[in-house]
Amino acid sequence: MGFLKGKTAIITGAGLAKLKDGSPGAIGYGIAIAYAKEGANLVITGRNVSKLTGAKEELEREYGIEVLPVQADVSASSDNKAVVQNVIDKAMEKFGRIDVLVNNAQASASGVTLADHSTDQFDLAIYSGLYATFYYMQAAYPHLKETKGSVINFASGAGLFGNYSQCAYAAAKEGIRGMSRVAATEWGPDGINVNVVCPLAWTAALENFQEQYPDAFEANVHMPPMGHYGDVEQEIGRVVVQLANPDFKFMSGETLTLEGGMGQRP
Predict the structure, then answer these.
(1) How far is it, in rounded angstroms, from Cα 137 to Cα 102?
(2) % of residues, the chain, pLDDT over 70
(3) Which residues contact 225 (CB under 8 A, 6 or more apart)?
(4) Is 35 a catalytic residue?
C-alpha cells in the first residue's frame, strides 16, 4: 500500500468496463485501480448500478480496500445539486473524509457535426461533463479544504485542437478547463491543488465509437508518435494518482496531455 492509505478518493464514471480482450476498458476504472493500489478507499459513481457493483467486487477482492458505489447521473432532467450532494454525504458518512476528487464522467454525442447537433445532444455533454464537474467541486470543497486535498478534472484534445464532429464534447471540456484554472486561483490559499488531464487511451467506448462512426473515428483518432494508445491504468491512472501526491502539490491550474506525443502545443 502507498501514500494514499487511509485516505478517500471520489472518482466519477468509474464503473467496471472491459475491452474485448478482457483488460480494463474505461479510464475511470483504470484510475480506480491505480488509486486502489496506493491504498485509497474509493467512492465510485456512475449511471449503471451493475457496473458499479462489479467494480466494487473486483477492487475490494484484488486490493483489500473499501469501495462505496453510489449511483448518480447529472442530466438536464435531474435535481443535480441534490444528486451530487447525496454522493458527498454518503462519502462522509462512510469514510469521514475526502482527500481527492476525480471528475472523469462524461457523456456526449460525438460523431455529429455542429450544424446537425440538437439541443438535447448539446445538453447531454454540458450537463454530464461541465455541470457535473461544477456541482462535485462545489459540494466537495469544504471537505477538501479540511484535508488540503486535490482535484483532478478531465478535459480532452477535442477542445484543445477542435476535433471534427465533437462540438458539444469540446465545449464541455474547455469549460471544465476554464473552471479548473479559476479554482486553482481561488482554492490555492486553502491548500487545494486543481489540475486537468487530457487523455488518449484505448477504451471500450473508443472501440464502440470506431464501430458506430467510422468516418469520425478516422478523422479524429490517430496513432500517437509513441506507437500505441494509452493504457487506462498504467499510463492514465498512474498519472492521476501522482497528481494527488504531496510531491506535486505546488503544481496547480495546469493541463497535462497524456497523448503519447500527440498533445504538443505552445
Answers:
(1) 9
(2) 100
(3) 260, 261, 262
(4) no
> 69: Cβ–Cβ under 8 A, 6 or more apart, which residues?
44, 45, 46, 49, 52, 53, 55, 56
Is 77's pLDDT higher than 70? yes
Q: SS3 string of the chain?
A: CCCCCCCEEEEECCCCCECCCCCECCHHHHHHHHHHHCCCEEEEEECCHHHHHHHHHHHHHHHCCCEEEEECCCCCCCCHHHHHHHHHHHHHHHHCCCCEEEECCCCCCCCECHHHCCHHHHHHHHHHHHHHHHHHHHHHHHHHHHHCCEEEEECCHHHHHCCCCEHHHHHHHHHHHHHHHHHHHHHHHHCCEEEEEEECECCHHHHHHHHHCHHHHHHHCCCCCCCCCECHHHHHHHHHHHCCCHHHCCCCCCEEEECCCCCCCC
For 265, the grid coordinates are 502545443
Q: Per DSSP, what are the bridge partners of residue 67?
A: 42
HSE of 225 in the Cβ direction (CA atoms, 13 Å)?
6
C-alpha to C-alpha distance for 116 and 77, rounded to whole angstroms: 22
**Residues 17-63 pLDDT 10s:** 999 888 899 999 999 999 999 999 999 999 999 999 999 999 999 99
Residues 35, 127, 136, 169: which is the catalytic one? Answer: 169
- pLDDT tens figures, 216-225: 788 778 899 9
